[in-house]
Design brief:
Low-confidence stretches: 1-54
Largest sheet: 7 strands, antiparallel
Structural class: alpha+beta
Shape: globular
CATH superfamily of the largest domain: Regulatory protein AraC
Mean pLDDT: 77
CATH architecture of the largest domain: Sandwich
Number of helices: 10
CATH class of the largest domain: Mainly Beta
Order of helices and strands: EEEEEEEEEHEEHHHHHHHHH
Number of strands: 11
Radius of gyration: 20 Å
Number of domains: 2
Strand content: 15-25%
Strand order of the largest sheet: 1-2-9-4-7-11-10
Distance between the termini: 21 Å
Helix content: 25-40%
């Protein structure tokens, strides 16, 4: 059978997947394609009986890649909203265009259909939440259509969304409690990041915009907050206040996030040189500093992270 990228990364609750039982950390490609197993990531947080807030809980959480041309019709998510973040690919959702950087949440009462085109297959993160759809309607993020699907563009917080989902794959805890609280915390952090980047009357400071562009361009160098402030001709403290006001993070945190996102992309892309070379490629002359930052961000070391891909 021809190679494809279709990963199964969720507990088998979708209609077309019934009959396949997947453990909490699922391993392997979609069994319907009979391909050799590979490591993939998913968290199935089916903790209803121990959830202290029964009106809201996350049921499962994962990452999917579809083969080119795959179509799924009349899908539902076991009577709960499912939130998707399309990080790559193009296709159609209920007949309307579905593109990279589009997030959407589905109405559990209305089945939906998805098809990915032949040239740009889907890659998306997703989370199913046991809650009323009004939870999402009240967020001031989504535009809901007649098909019951709410959509929004998450281009401005794409890196944050991917980073936080990846971080969620490493969450653990005794008896499930630590895992449950960790995943819920990350879920609300994702929504918080999206809301901060949603259109509003308040505009981001030109200093912050220039700083973000400078970080994206110069993350490979020995960049620090003092140098960043000097480039913008403002004080370090003033720059920090602007970042916290407009983005909710410090300049130092933003520098680290950009570097970690690039490092994760390098490790996911396949065989690379030594991990020390990866560290240097993202601006860390000291591997120990890179290792400390990476562990804090992803909950594992770079070698373990690379094995997962």
């Amino acid at each position: 059978m021809a190679e494809n990228n279709n990963w199964y990364t969720h507990f088998s609750t979708f209609e077309e997947d019934r009959g396949f039982s997947v453990p909490i950390i699922s391993q392997g490609r979609d069994p319907r394609f009979n391909e050799p197993p590979v490591s993939v990531y998913s968290r199935d947080i089916l903790l209803c009986r121990m959830n202290p807030t029964p009106s809201f809980h996350i049921c499962d959480w994962g990452e999917d890649r579809w083969p080119a041309g795959r179509a799924v019709n009349n899908r539902n998510c076991d009577d709960m909203p499912c939130l998707h973040f399309m990080v790559d690919g193009e296709g159609h959702l209920n007949g309307s265009p579905l593109k990279k950087n589009m997030a959407f949440v589905t109405d559990p009462a209305i089945p939906y259909s998805m098809v990915t085109d032949g040239a740009n297959p889907f890659h998306y993160f997703w989370v199913r939440v046991r809650t009323d759809l009004d939870f999402f309607r009240n967020l001031d993020l989504f535009t809901f259509g007649e098909d019951g699907v709410g959509r929004f563009d998450f281009s401005d917080c794409r890196e944050d969304v991917m980073r936080l989902f990846r971080k969620g794959f490493s969450v653990s805890g005794d008896n499930g409690w630590g895992m449950m609280f960790g995943i819920n915390s990350l879920f609300f952090e994702i929504l918080s990041r999206c809301l901060r980047h949603a259109p509003s009357e308040r505009t981001v400071s030109p200093y912050v915009k220039d700083a973000l562009e400078y970080i994206r361009t110069n993350y490979k160098s020995e960049l620090n907050v003092n140098l960043l402030a000097e480039q913008l001709h403002i004080s370090r403290n003033h720059l920090r206040r602007l970042f916290l006001r407009d983005l909710g993070v410090t300049p130092k945190d933003q520098i680290t996030r950009v570097r970690m996102d690039v490092a994760a992309t390098i490790l996911e892309s396949g065989p690379v040189g030594s991990l020390a070379q990866v560290a240097q490629a993202v601006g860390y002359p000291s591997y120990s500093q890179f290792l400390q930052a990476f562990r804090k961000e992803f909950g594992c070391n770079p070698k373990e992270y690379r094995k997962q891909y």
